[in-house]
Amino acid sequence: MSRRPPRGEYIETDTGNKVARKATLVGTQNIMLGGKTVIQQEVMIRGDLARSVQSSSSGGAPPNNTAVAIGRYCFLSRGCCLRPPGRLYKGSFTYMPLRIQDHVFVGPGSVIQAASIGSHVHIGAKVVIGEFAIIKDYVRILDGSVVPPNMVIPSFSIVAGQPARVIGEVPEGGHEAFELRELYKTVGNSLPPAPS
């Protein structure tokens, strides 16, 4: 009688991404992970909401249907939702890509529908980021904030409120706090050693 080894809580990909078995990734062919990204339980990524209208400028090139692109060392906390923004384009409704750069932390229960999020961004718990918002580099969005659609948040800003507004600046020496390499190392399958 053969016993299967216990399965870990996370699936680790070749590029070092750690995806929880209880995360929901819909339309995986339209989701790009840059590597060393952590996706916790109950995270929902909607890759099925991909662009349906093709641009005429691409000529004979194959369509790029990436709905969600996530950079390196990102951390998606439990219960957050990433959803591409949608709008009318050339007379029909379509979705535009959601692009997230490197070292982005998304807090638990947050809903992201931004057009782009820069590098070294910290998004708190239960934050809502409206459609087509643009968040530049080194931004901290505090817990419970609601970023309205189409808002552009400049680099080195601290944002809070409902609706969100810039309430301060990230201090000069505070840039190291955005590094997520150490947090990445703490997540993984802590399987007991195999019996000898």
From TrEMBL:
GO cellular component: dynactin complex
Highest taxon in the source lineage: Eukaryota
Family: Belongs to the dynactin subunits 5/6 family. Dynactin subunit 5 subfamily.
Cell compartment(s), UniProt: Cytoplasm, Cytoskeleton
Chief location bin: cytoplasm
Gene3D superfamilies: Hexapeptide repeat proteins
Keywords, alphabetical: Cytoplasm, Cytoskeleton
Pfam family, one: DCTN5
Organism whose genome encodes this protein: Lasiosphaeris hirsuta
Protein name per UniProt: Dynactin subunit 5
InterPro entries xref list: DCTN5, Trimer_LpxA-like_sf
SUPFAM superfamilies: Trimeric LpxA-like enzymes
Keyword Cytoplasm: yes
